[in-house]
Design brief:
- By secondary structure, the protein is mostly beta strands.
- It is about 0% helix and about 40% strand.
- The protein contains no helices and 16 strands.
- Strands 2, 3, 5 and 6 form a 4-stranded antiparallel sheet that branches. A 3-stranded antiparallel sheet has the order 9-8-11, with no helix packed on it.
- Strand 13 and strand 14 form a beta hairpin.
C-alpha cells in the first residue's frame, strides 16, 4: 500500500515496509512518465504537479521537458506500441501521451520563389514544391540532385 504525506505509520502484523520514496515536483513545462511493471500500462503526468508513484510504478527516464511548437517548428511523435510516426503542428506546449515519444523537432523548410524542392513520400510519390514553406512529413525525404557540366 502507499501512504502519502508526513504521518506516523503503524504497520500491521503481516506488513513489511519496502521503502520510502521521494515525491517528484514537476515545473510548468515538464512531464513524468510512469510505467506499471505489473500491467505494462503507462501514464504521463504533466506539470506543474507533485507526482507520487503508485505501487509497482517506475520511471526510467526521469523528468522530461515538453516541446514548444511554434509556426516555424513541429514535432515528430512516435507511438511506441506500433512504431507509427506523426507530425504534430498544433502551436503551443506539446506533452506526449501514454505510449508516445518525441523523436525530434523539425523546422519549417522554406523554398524561395526561384528555387524548387523535390520531396519523395513514403508511398513513392514525388512532389515538387516551389516558393513555399512546408514541414517534411515523418517518412518523407528531400531528393538531392547532382548537376554536372561536361562542356
Amino acid at each position: 500500500r502507499n501512504e502519502l504525506g508526513p504521518q506516523l505509520l503503524v504497520l500491521g502484523p503481516y506488513e513489511k515496509m519496502l521503502g520510502v520514496q521521494v515525491k517528484v515536483v514537476l515545473e510548468k513545462d515538464e512531464y513524468y512518465r510512469l510505467v506499471n511493471k505489473r500491467t505494462g500500462t503507462e501514464r504521463v503526468v504533466k506539470g506543474p504537479n507533485v507526482v507520487v508513484p503508485e505501487t509497482g510504478e517506475e520511471n526510467d527516464e526521469g523528468k522530461q521537458k515538453a516541446v514548444f511548437i511554434t509556426v516555424q517548428t513541429a514535432a515528430i511523435v512516435e507511438y511506441r506500441t506500433t512504431g507509427q510516426q506523426r507530425l504534430e503542428t498544433n502551436p503551443g506546449v506539446f506533452y506526449p501521451g501514454p505510449y508516445e515519444m518525441i523523436k525530434s523537432v523539425r523546422s519549417r523548410t522554406a523554398v524561395r520563389a526561384n528555387e524548387a524542392a523535390v520531396v519523395r513520400h513514403s508511398s513513392g510519390n514525388v512532389t515538387v514544391k516551389t516558393g513555399e514553406a512546408f514541414f517534411l512529413d515523418p517518412y518523407s525525404t528531400i531528393v538531392e540532385y547532382s548537376w554536372s557540366s561536361y562542356a
